[in-house]
Design goal:
6-stranded parallel beta sheet; Rossmann fold; 483 residues; 15 strands; globular
Length: 483
């Protein structure tokens, strides 16, 4: 099966922080792939805006190198590289002053779609938004894209939303979370709401519990200073894991449109019960003979910042009453994987031998590294010898089922940027959604700080601290293997 590419209209995209790490590693290599696929039209223009006075040729050379380094271009795509590079422009700009804004204003074509990507620190969002309007650069239909973190608590999130809303309408603000751009995340909605098979079972009557795991093998790397002020709760749980939980737990929206989908996600967040202290585990990776500890990587020998979090959460509504949601995320774990596992209840009565019904049906949605879904079912083992039952996965791995078109399949950033150009906010967070997530997260963090909570140490290459294992074992359940 070949994916269908629908071109977007010509546009002007300005990337503030256009020489930064995100622009070089993700945004521009992704746009190049969309250009090669025929989705980005020849009439589009990408304008990098940053402090450095490197000039247009210097910028084009920089991005050419970034695409070769981070974009893994094929020999077939490289024939398009010169044409793509020709669409790049550069403006040296003073975000907090007036330098460069007049030049930027002259470049923008107001008769086309205008989008502005704020790939800079959140502290600069207000300055950029204000100057876009004071210089009459942004049109009433312009879109702005803002990266996380969307604040570090409820108070700062409200302040950030207020700053942006003073210059732009909510319909113009695209808060990007790249997890929502993953193919499998979107397929989760298709599986749930496009098939009659699952919806009757998608409730507390049939589901025992749900596990959401985002495990990383890397440490904090060069992000130590930032991460040490953030931690796994702010960096991963409040946004990525929260969004995955919402998509699993939300009610069917009346229509597949941005506000209908986001209204249902917001209801989920507002239905989350407060989390008791004994339902949260914090961890921090420890040193080994060959690897440094978190404290060494963060350059803070007294750090109490968590690199791992496990939470048992409950949603207080009719659909999910009594169903625990186990969330966990951590760094320096044994494998890199992101998975949602819907674990169904055991049979109320088995007609087979007791040993045959030990395992439960599990729908596992794999987000990375290999996107796909499996449904564990029980069947008869082939051959003579009686009714011997075995548990096997019905494999819905996309590369197998749909053909391996990884070269043509857009990654999360590519897809989301194209959605910005189309004006589709379905996969972007709304301001009230962000604030509701912080309202649930803040009391957990405040409780840690109030009691000077010390994270539990765990070994690099493990599945996390022992206390996280006990969190789920107390309920007679087990974490799925991190693999």
């Amino acid at each position: 099966m070949v994916s269908r590419v629908i071109p977007v209209e010509p546009f002007d995209l300005v990337i503030f922080g256009g020489t930064g790490d995100l622009a070089r590693r993700k945004i521009l290599p992704g746009l190049f792939r969309r250009f090669c696929a025929g989705q980005m039209p020849a009439g589009a223009r990408i304008i990098g805006a940053a402090r450095g006075d490197i000039g247009q040729q210097g910028y084009q050379d920089m991005i050419r190198g970034a695409i070769n380094e981070f974009g893994a271009p094929s020999a077939e795509s490289l024939v398009h590289l010169d044409a793509f590079i020709a669409q790049l422009h550069y403006v040296a700009i003073d975000i907090c002053g007036d330098g460069g804004w007049g030049e930027l204003a002259k470049l923008i074509r107001k008769d086309l779609v205008n989008a502005y990507y704020f790939s800079v620190a959140p502290s600069l969002f207000g300055d950029i938004a204000a100057r876009l309007n004071s210089w009459d650069i942004a049109t009433p239909e312009a879109r702005i894209v803002v990266e996380k973190p969307f604040g570090r608590d409820l108070q700062s999130a409200k302040a950030l939303n207020k700053v942006l809303s003073q210059q732009f309408d909510e319909s113009q603000i695209y808060r990007i979370d790249h997890y929502l751009g993953k193919e499998t995340v979107q397929n989760l909605m298709a599986v749930r709401f496009g098939n009659l098979l699952f919806e009757p079972l998608w409730n507390a009557q049939y589901i025992d519990h749900i596990q959401i795991t985002v495990a990383e093998t890397v440490g904090v790397g060069g992000r130590g200073a930032y991460y040490d002020k953030s931690g796994a709760m702010r960096d991963m749980v409040q946004n990525h894991l929260m969004q995955l939980l919402c998509l699993i737990a939300m009610e069917p929206p009346s229509h597949f449109d941005p506000d209908a989908v986001r209204d249902e996600k917001l209801k989920v967040i507002r239905s989350l019960a407060p989390v008791a202290a004994h339902h949260v585990v914090r961890g921090q990776y420890d040193a080994t003979a060959t690897t440094a500890s978190y404290r060494t990587d963060a350059e803070n020998p007294r750090s109490f910042t968590e690199s791992y979090v496990a939470i048992k959460a409950h949603i207080e509504n009719w659909r999910w009453a009594g169903v625990p949601f186990y969330l966990r995320t951590g760094k320096k774990l044994k494998a890199r994987t992101s998975e949602i596992a819907i674990v169904f209840k055991k049979l109320p009565h088995s007609i087979f031998e007791k040993s045959a019904d030990e395992k439960q049906n599990v729908l596992a949605i794999q987000l990375q590294p290999n996107e796909g879904m499996t449904l564990d079912v029980t069947i008869k083992e082939p051959g003579p010898g009686g009714m011997r039952l075995v548990h096997v996965p019905l494999d819905m791995t996309f590369a197998d089922a749909l053909g391996d078109h990884s070269e043509d399949t857009p990654d999360a950033y590519e897809r989301l940027i194209m959605d910005v150009i189309r004006g589709d906010q379905t996969l972007f967070m709304r301001g009230d959604e962000v604030e509701a997530a912080w309202k649930w997260t803040d009391p957990i963090i405040e409780a840690w700080e109030a009691r000077n909570d010390v994270p539990k140490l765990y070994d690099v290459g493990s599945a996390g601290p022992e206390d996280a294992m006990a969190l789920i074992h107390r309920d007679g359940r087990r974490w799925r293997e991190v693999k």
